[in-house]
Amino acid sequence: MLNNKNQINVIKNEDKSTEKDLFISEQLKEASFNEELTEKMIYILYKYKSAFETDKKTLHAIIGHEVDIILNVERPYPPPLRRPAYPAIPRGKQALEVHIKELMDLRVLRKLQHNQQV
Fold it and tell me: Please, which residues have CB within 8 angstroms of residue 85's CB and are 6 or more apart in sequence?
């Protein structure tokens, strides 16, 4: 005899499997897996799908996963560089600046002033 609670659980499980099948058909259609690991890999990719960029969702900053980078401001200071170790060609420098701007627009990186606290 099924009660309402069991019926709801069955419906929820069907929704999850439909959502998982949709994820597999849309996002993993061009992927190739080792046959032995396929089921486990699909499960992990589906479970952590929010960590990956898709056609519909671009990569963005994930709140709560910030990383503090502490720069060495203690003495002895590193010797000043007279010139870059290897100069960047203008085209490469421009491409790097465009990439950094994209990451800042997505709020993955942010520029801090010298007196700002993170």
Answer: none
